[in-house]
């Protein structure tokens, strides 16, 4: 029995060891990926309602892994956040987004998105040089600050509100806009909407799924849209997958929507090729 226990322990230890190695291996591969230029920028269109024209785009990171193919952020962002690598990744996406949209606006002003929305992990709010870095990205690419939106999740509101508020105000002084991503999922009080300078609310996909045929959910979404508009905010509905959802949101007065029904995240060139075609030929 004693031997069996020992064996069990060894099996356990071996598994721990394997997990640790695999994590270290993953971490090393992600670090190399960043330096080898394997990250890719994808853009998902955000359309204006009711006309359905592309208004802006959200920047979403992908990893073109030579061994495993195109990786979605869910498979590497958590590790990147744990290890701090997210800072480098977000900075690359920010620069690449500003550069791409700026070039597009110069080359085809008629079809280019008017703005680009970039995700920032909450850890950036602890970095004193965040504002300088955003200013640098705007200056080197020439993108107008009004064309840049920075998306943060509600979890940043659970941090030191004074620090968060000061950082966001600094960013807004540059002329960039601040969006609250996944609005309604953060379990935070609404009090921050009084104290924190924000410009955009993105209603989380979980409120849009199941919207059709659920009166209670419709009232809730409608109330969020009204609240946002009353506060002078732009409201974007995320995760729109069906025409019926879009119709409901339009009737509710929602002015912006994003989701597979309207366009998938895709390489900038693909989105651009699609938009170059006149809507009604
Ligand atoms: P998010 O910021 O909430 O981005 C929206 C996610 O929903 C994207 O997933 C997008 O592909 C997906 N999506 C869009 N429309 C639909 C739809 O109609 N149905 C469904 N089911 N999904 C839809 P993705 O690209 O896999 O990104 C997942 C998350 O990873 C993002 O959620 C964001 O939190 C994070 N992320 C992505 N790129 C970055 C980045 O550059 N920096 C940071 N810090 N986080 C990022
Ligand atoms: Ca987002
Ligand atoms: Ca979101
Ligand atoms: Ca999300």
TrEMBL record:
It comes from the Bacteria. Keywords: Membrane, Signal, Transmembrane, Transmembrane helix. GO terms for biological process: signal transduction. This is PAS domain S-box-containing protein/diguanylate cyclase (GGDEF)-like protein. The keyword Transmembrane applies. Residues 23-279 form the EAL domain. It comes from Actinoplanes xinjiangensis. One of its GO terms (cellular component) is membrane. The keyword Nuclease does not apply.
């Amino acid at each position: 029995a004693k031997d069996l226990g020992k064996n069990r322990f060894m099996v356990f230890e071996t598994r721990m060891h394997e997990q640790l190695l695999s994590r270290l291996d993953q971490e090393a591969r992600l670090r190399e990926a960043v330096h080898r230029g394997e990250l890719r920028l994808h853009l998902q269109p955000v359309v204006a309602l009711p006309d359905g024209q592309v208004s802006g785009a959200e920047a979403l990171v992908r990893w073109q892994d030579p061994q495993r193919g195109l990786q979605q952020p869910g498979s590497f962002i958590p590790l990147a956040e744990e290890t701090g690598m997210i800072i480098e990744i977000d900075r690359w996406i920010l620069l690449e987004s500003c550069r791409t949209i700026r070039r597009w606006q110069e080359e085809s002003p008629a079809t280019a998105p008017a703005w680009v929305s970039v995700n920032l992990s909450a850890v950036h709010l602890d970095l004193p040089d965040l504002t300088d870095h955003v200013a640098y990205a705007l200056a080197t690419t020439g993108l107008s600050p009004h064309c840049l939106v920075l998306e943060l999740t509600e979890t940043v509101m659970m941090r030191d509100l004074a620090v968060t508020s000061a950082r966001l105000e600094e960013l807004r002084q540059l002329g960039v806009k601040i969006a609250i991503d996944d609005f309604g999922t953060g379990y935070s009080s609404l009090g921050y909407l009084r104290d924190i300078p924000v410009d955009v609310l993105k209603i989380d996909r979980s409120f849009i799924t199941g919207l059709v045929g659920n009166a209670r959910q419709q009232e809730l979404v409608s109330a969020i849209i009204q609240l946002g508009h009353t506060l002078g905010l732009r409201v974007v509905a995320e995760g729109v997958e069906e025409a019926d959802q879009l119709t409901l949101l339009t009737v509710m007065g929602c002015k912006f929507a994003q989701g597979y029904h309207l366009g998938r995240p895709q390489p900038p060139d693909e989105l651009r090729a699609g938009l170059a075609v006149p809507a009604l030929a």
